[in-house]
Design brief:
Layout lengths: L7 E5 L5 H18 L9 H13 L6 E8 L2 E9 L20
Amino acid sequence: MTGRSDAVVIRTASTSDVEALADVYVSSARHHAALDPAFYNVPGRDAVVRHLRDALADEDEADVVRLVAEVDGTVVGSADVQLRSPGPASMLITRGAASRPR
């Protein structure tokens, strides 16, 4: 037994995650740039940190949830989930002030 759980924990990102998220992002960018340098580049870490700080500080984005994945307390990944309105081909029934209850 190594004492490691190896369990992945998914949680909402916070501003305290910015440095770790920047490391993950830049590492991913390096990987992608190595695969296709004509399509991907590696942004400067400081620019990524600034972008993430701004994005995580903006709490007005009620339709976006930023998540982090952790293993043993270390951030190993992230995802942004954005709620979108259903389009005209959606099976979802749009609810709102103009819609009538069923």
